Amino acid sequence: MPTPDLTPKPLLDSLASYPHWFVVACLTLVVAAVIWLLAKMLKWGLYALVGLVLIGGLGASIWLLFH
Fold first, then answer.
1. Whole-angstrom Cα distance, residue 52 to residue 44?
2. Is the dihedral of CA 52, 55, 58, 59 positive or negative?
3. What local confidence, expressed as pLDDT, does residue 19 receive?
4. CA 40, 46, 48, 52: dihedral to nearest 10 degrees?
5. Max CA distance (Å), the chain
6. Beta carbons within 10 angstroms of residue 31's beta carbon
7. What span, in angstroms and rounded, lies between the C-alpha atoms of 25 and 16?
8. pLDDT digits 0-9 by tens, 25-65
9. Which of 25, 56, 4 is nearest to 64 (CA)?
């Protein structure tokens, strides 16, 4: 039965030289930035959806008015 390869991955190996608190602080900032960007995208998506509903409702009411 072969033994599993337990060598650390290069990314984790390069982070091992930094203090743990610094790695956690940087990861916290990265995750906070990703959440902030997702919130911005969701907000603009909601604005676009509201705009499309308003345009569709206005178009439907004008179409019904003339038919």
1. 12
2. negative
3. 93
4. 180
5. 80
6. 10
7. 14
8. 999 999 999 999 999 999 999 999 999 999 999 999 999 99
9. 56
Reported as a pLDDT band with limits 50, 70 and 90, residue 14 is: confident
Q: Position of tokens 């990265």?
A: 30
What's the confidence (pLDDT) of residue 16? 83
Which tokens go with 59? 């178009």
Helix segments in 1-67, DSSP class H: 10-15, 20-66
Both tokens of 51, joined, read 């705009």
**Residue length, the chain?**
67
